[in-house]
Recover the amino acids of this structure.
């Protein structure tokens, strides 16, 4: 083996071991992948409109020119180009369980379906908690820019239903080092 190959191998080994040492793996949690599917490029918009109220909507007829009757009461838009993977996972956290600091390659929809979960963002120097109870959820849209952690800080189990949007074939999560803002 050439000296150059040995040096490259040693450098790679050092980088890998350094990444393992700096990662913050989860504990007290169990993940079950419920499904993952590939979706070709799409552009979908859905809108729900209220019936046109003669008095309140007279001054605002912009919806009419776009083929909508009345005032928009709800709208959602989803677009992907090219394809993307959508995966759904059930994650159970025992009391004191946590995900470890990590990032994702795309947006993540998190729904707490049992118990209470606490979430922390790695770019928050004050380490302010976001506490969610069963039936509440949030969209973590900046997951590729900073690390975050999910923790069950209660004495009862908690479960999250998590839906990931990711580039085709990408890992759904990437372990990250502790950013150092939180006391844990």
């Amino acid at each position: 083996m050439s000296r150059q190959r040995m040096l490259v191998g040693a450098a790679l080994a050092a980088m890998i071991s350094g990444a393992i040492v700096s990662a913050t793996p989860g504990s007290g949690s169990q993940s079950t992948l419920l499904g993952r599917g590939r979706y070709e490029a799409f552009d979908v918009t859905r809108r729900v409109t209220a019936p046109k109220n003669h008095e309140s909507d007279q001054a605002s007829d912009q919806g009419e020119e776009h083929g909508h009757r009345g005032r928009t009461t709800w709208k959602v838009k989803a677009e992907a180009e090219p394809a993307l993977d959508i995966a759904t996972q059930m994650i159970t956290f025992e009391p004191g369980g946590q995900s470890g600091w990590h990032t994702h390659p795309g947006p993540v929809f998190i729904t707490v379906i049992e118990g209470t979960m606490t979430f922390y963002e790695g770019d928050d120097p004050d380490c302010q908690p976001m506490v969610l109870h069963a039936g509440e959820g949030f969209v973590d849209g900046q997951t590729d820019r900073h690390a975050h952690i999910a923790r069950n800080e209660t004495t009862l189990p908690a479960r999250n239903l998590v839906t990931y949007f990711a580039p085709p074939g990408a890992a759904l999560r990437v372990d990250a080092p502790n950013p150092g803002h939180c006391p844990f």
Summary: Residues 5-21 have pLDDT under 50 and may be disordered.
